[in-house]
Specification:
This protein is mainly beta. Helices cover about 15% and strands about 65% of the residues.
C-alpha cells in the first residue's frame, strides 16, 4: 500500500508540475492532456510449483495524464483498474477452480505521436510499470514490475478531443496478460 501511495504521490507531483509549466509557457492553452479508456486484458498463463494459473478476459478502466514536451514527444503517467477471473488447475489431478482477481497498474511512459494527416495519428509508447495483483482466495497479494510497450491509432474528432484504440504489451509475467484499450483523449 505504501508503494501505491508513493507512486500516486509522484504521479500527482509530476502532473501538477507539468500543468504549471504548460500554463506558464503557453498562456492560451497548456500542453496537458488526459485520456479516459476502457480496457480489456487478454489473459495469460503461468506455471507455479503445483498449479497453472490462467487469466481470462479482464475488464476495467484506465486513465492517462500526459504533458506534451515538443515535436510529438510527451510524458505520461498511466493507471488502470481491472477485474478478472483466474483459473487454477492442479498439475497432478487436472482439477480446476475459478477465482476473482484484481489488478491495479501504474506506469510512467515516454510517448511519441506521429501525425499522418491533420486528423489521424499513430502513437508509440514505452515505459516502466508497477502492478498490484490480488487474488484473495489464493492468498495472492503481490507487487510486480516490468516494462510496457504500446501502439495506438488516434483520430481527432474536434480540436481538443480525440478517440483512440491502443494495444499494450507488458513484460510482467502473470495471469493479467496484454491489454487492449479504447478511449477518449481531452487536450486543455
Amino acid at each position: 500500500m505504501k508503494k501505491l501511495v508513493s507512486i500516486l504521490g509522484l504521479s500527482t507531483l509530476l502532473t501538477v508540475g507539468a500543468i504549471a509549466h504548460g500554463v506558464e509557457a503557453h498562456e492560451e492553452k497548456s500542453d496537458f492532456y488526459v485520456a479516459v479508456k476502457g480496457i480489456v486484458t487478454l489473459g495469460d498463463s503461468i506455471d507455479e510449483e503445483t498449479v497453472k494459473l490462467e487469466g481470462g478476459l479482464g475488464k476495467g478502466l484506465g486513465i492517462d495524464l500526459g504533458y506534451v514536451i515538443s515535436h510529438g514527444f510527451s510524458v505520461e503517467v498511466d493507471g488502470t483498474y481491472v477485474l478478472n477471473t483466474v483459473k487454477e488447475t492442479a498439475f497432478e489431478t487436472g482439477e480446476s477452480k475459478d477465482f476473482d482477481a484484481t489488478y491495479i497498474t501504474t506506469s510512467l511512459d515516454v510517448v511519441y505521436k506521429y501525425m499522418v494527416t491533420s486528423e489521424f495519428a499513430i502513437l508509440l509508447k514505452g515505459g516502466y510499470e508497477y502492478e498490484f495483483e490480488k487474488i484473495p482466495d489464493l492468498d495472492v497479494d503481490k507487487t510486480l514490475s516490468g516494462f510496457v510497450y504500446a501502439g495506438a491509432l488516434i483520430y481527432e474528432v474536434t480540436e481538443g478531443i480525440e478517440v483512440l484504440a491502443e494495444y499494450e504489451v507488458t513484460t510482467i509475467k502473470g495471469p493479467r496478460g496484454n491489454s487492449a484499450f479504447v478511449g477518449v483523449e481531452f487536450s486543455f
